[in-house]
Every structure is written in structure tokens, then in C-alpha cells.
Amino acid sequence: MNISKKLGQFKQWTGEKLGGAQKTETSEEFKNLEHATEQRKAEYEKLDLQLNSFVKSISRGEGKDKDRSPMEAFGSAMSTVGNTLEASAYTKALILVGDAHTDVATSQRTFVNIVKDGYLEEMNRQMADVKDYQRLKTKLENRRLDYDAKMNKVQKAKAANPALEEDVRVAQSKYEETLQDITARMISLNANEEDQLTELCRLVDAEVEFFQAGLERLMQVQKEFANIPRVRSGNNRAEYKRSISAASSLYDTHRDSTSHTPAFTPPLGSNASVGRLTRSNSGFNSGGGPPPLPNRDPTPSRSNSKQTRALYQFDAEGPGEMSIRKGDLINVIEEVDEGWWIGEMADGSGQRGMFPANYCEVVEAPAAPLPPYRPPSTYNAGVDASPRLAAGNVNASGGGRGYPAPVPSRASYIPSAPVPSRPQYEDPRSSSAGGAAGGTCYCGCAEFVENAFKPGQCRSCFHNKH
């Protein structure tokens, strides 16, 4: 194309944009056909892009495995791991699944070849027609501009010019020729769906066959899985966690017992004991809101007997949990772990469940009444009292009833059962008596000193020897 022709087309295009030049218009039928073709062209381009991406994703891998499909590479990796590691139920399953995926990849390769030779090839032909249509559209626009430019030039001429008229006839002929070509191409694009439908049916048949083969192969693996023993991984993890928790508890106990021995432990009901337990179990600071909830993955632990008071409100969020309100008294049934306890409401409602330990403080449980003291029938009130009695352990002024004074509370002991046996006690007079003490009382103490006036009875507690 020469420079003068190109310049004439540019002038014509500029005149049309500015509204001063006349433009050759196509028929309404041509415009409708062009609109339908443009819409089909845009949709075909989207379909072609996704079809090629689909075929590429199932037929080629990445990196070193670009010559193998992703499924084939995946199956090969599983088989390799199963054959390399020590034989177990898991490695056996890896080999079965890996071999199955390799077989399915073979069927997949057959399916991909059918798609490439059929539907993908037909789509490539359609895209070639789309490109040809786009080329003819550009050519038609250029020839229309050339034809309109020469026509406007003839109309502006003051006298007849045979050369200009000949140029107009040639430009008109070329424009009409291109118009016919693009019309035929648009008709072909919009009417050529039969071949595409045929190839699409072949694609579906091949895909169904591929999925059926893959399903049968995987169902075969599923049947073979029935012969492989299965262990619930959740139980294994829980058992492992319990073993770690037990080992940690043993270490903490050993560390606490070897680091220091306290000279005195305050009673549970004392303020010091409550403060210490509150700080160690609740884990909250005095100035803020409720502390963060502990991890909801409890492991069974020891059971305990204590009572707590709720410091914050807690709403149950899962099965087995119990909602509590500030001020509620809760009897602890079991300490699941350091963060969660199981308890029952102390109001008699019978409501029980799991609650966060750090939302509560430990309080002193109400003491159970002690069993009445019953002295033996051979009790001699006139016998000289032992140092224990002289110290005021027996109330002799209370109407002669002979009840012992209340046993002092011991550290970490909540009276909910009969008082345990007394601690070992050595009477200072036993050594001076030249070994007169022999045997133990029926109550279990080792302070027996035989009464010289009542053989078989103890000078200290007046119990019979056994």
C-alpha cells in the first residue's frame, strides 16, 4: 500500500470521527450477523483457553516430572515411599494406592489422547476460522475507508476526471469482494456446530470410560483395605499425650520432693493455703476480666475432693461442659487436667459437667462430723493420766462424758471420712521405764506403757494391749 492511499484512508477515518465525511453503511442483516459472530468469537476464546488448560493440567506435570501426568507422579511417589520405609500397615496401604493411581493414570492418558485428537482439534479449527474472520474484518474496514475516500474525492472534483472514476470502481470492487468473503466466513462460524457436537459426544464417552475404570480400580483397593488393620489415630494421639503428661507429672513430683522439704504446711482452711491454691490453679490477675479458656483437649487425670467458687461467668460451648455463674459453689469430682475439671453444683440441682479451673478459686469444703469417741468399759478415771491427757486432750470437766478434743486439721486433708490413724509417737517415759512398753494398742499407736495396777491396759490411753 502506497503512502497516498494510506493518507487518504486516514483522512476519511478522521472525517468520519469528526462527523464531516460520508460513510458507506452495511445492511441491517449484515450487522446482525456480525454481532452474533462477535459474541461467538468471545465465547470461543474463553472455551479454548480453559480447554487447553484442562488438557495440560491432566497430561503434563511440572519440573522434573513434566513428561508425566500429576496423577502418575503422585502414584509413583506413594509406591516409592511404601517400598522404602519399614513394612507396616501404612506402607502397605501406600503401595496399594500408589499402584492404583499409576493404573488410573494410564487410563487417563488414553482419555487425554482422545480429547486431543477429537474435541481439542475441532476447537483449534474453530479458532483458526475466528482468526480468519478477524483478519477479513480488518481488511474490509481498510477497503471501505479507501473506497469512501476516493468517492468523496470524486464528488468534490469540479470537473469529470476519468482516472479518479476508475480508482473508485476498483476500490468499490475490492470492498464488495471482501464483504462477500467475510459474510461467508461469519455464516460458517455460526452454522458449523454439527462437527463440534460430534466431537463433544466422543469426549463425554471417553471421560465416562475413564472414570469408570478409575472407580473400579479404586474400589478394588478399598476392598483390599479391609484386610489391613486400622488403628484410630485419635486414640494413638490421646495415649501418646497421656504418656507425655504422666512423664511430666513424675518429673514434677520428683523435682518438688528433691528440691526442698517444707517445715510446715498451713491448713487448707487458712488464708495462706487458699491464696496459694488460688494463684496456682486459677491463673488470673486481679485487675482484669476472666482469663483465657484452657485448651479443650482434656486427658483423664486424678480425681480429687474439693470445692470451688466461680469467679467469672462461663457459658458451655461443647458437649459435656457445664455453665457456671459468678458465685456458684461447685464440688470437684475429677481433675481432668490442669485446665479443666469435672464438678457438680453444690446447690443440690444435680447439674454436673466440665468447667475451666482458672475461672474458679478453691474454697474450704464443709467438714464432716467426727464419729463419737467410745472409751472401753475398763476405763479407770482414777488412774494417773498420761502426758497426752494431762495436756488437755480429754475433757474431764464436761459432765464426765470423756469426749476427746477435736483433732486439728491437717494440711491438704478434707475431713470426709473417719480420722486416720495417729502419727507415730514415742512416750518419753518409755525409755525410762526400762522397756516396759511392749506391743501396740488396738488403735494403732506405738505409745503403749503397761499400767502396773491394771495389767493389760495402757497407762497413756487406757486401751487394751493386743
TrEMBL record:
Region (Disordered): 16-37, 251-307, 397-433
Source domain of life: Eukaryota
Keyword rRNA-binding appears in the UniProt entry: no
Gene3D superfamilies xref list: Arfaptin homology (AH) domain/BAR domain (1.20.1270.60), SH3 Domains (2.30.30.40)
Domain BAR residue range list: 15-234
Record's GO cellular component terms: cytoplasm
One Pfam family this sequence matches: BAR
Coiled-coil ranges (or none): 123-157
Extent of Basic and acidic residues compositional bias: 25-37
Record field: compositional bias (Polar residues): 298-307
SH3 domain span: 303-365
Name this polypeptide is given: BAR-domain-containing protein
Organism encoding this protein: Rhizoclosmatium globosum
